[in-house]
Amino acid sequence: SGKWARAMAILREFEEKCGTPSGKLRQVADAMTVEMHAGLASEGGSKLKMLISYVDNLPTGDEKGLFYALDLGGTNFRVLRVVLGGKDDRVVKKEFEEVSIPPHLMTGSSDALFDYIAEALAKFVAKEGEGLHPSPGQQRELGFTFSFPVRQTSIASGNLIKWTKGFSIEDTVGQDVVGELTKAMERVGLDMRVAALVNDTIGTLAGGRYCNQDVIAAVILGTGTNAAYVERAQAIPKWHGLLPKSGEMVINMEWGNFRSSHLPLTEYDQALDVESLNPGEQIFEKIISGMYLGEIVRRVLLRMAQEADFFGDVVPPKLEIPFILRTPHMSAMHHDTSSDLKVVGSKLKDILEISNTSLKMRKAIVNLCDIVATRGARLSAAGIVGIIKKLGRDTVRDGEKQKSVIALDGGLFEHYTKFRISMESTLKELLGEEVSESIVVEHSNDGSGIGAALLAASHSQYL
Ligand code: ADP
Ligand code: MG
Question: Which of 47, 71, 115, 165 is labelled catalytic?
Answer without folding.
Answer: 165
